[in-house]
Amino acid sequence: MELLIRPFRIEDEPRVIELWQQCDLTRPWNDPHKDIAAKMQVNPELFLVGEMEGRIIATCMAGYEGHRGWISYFGVDPAMRRNGIGRRLIEEVEQLLKSRGCPKINLQIRTSNTAVIKFYETLGYKLDDVVSMGKRIDTAQK
Question: Whole-prediction pTM value?
Answer without folding.
Answer: 0.88
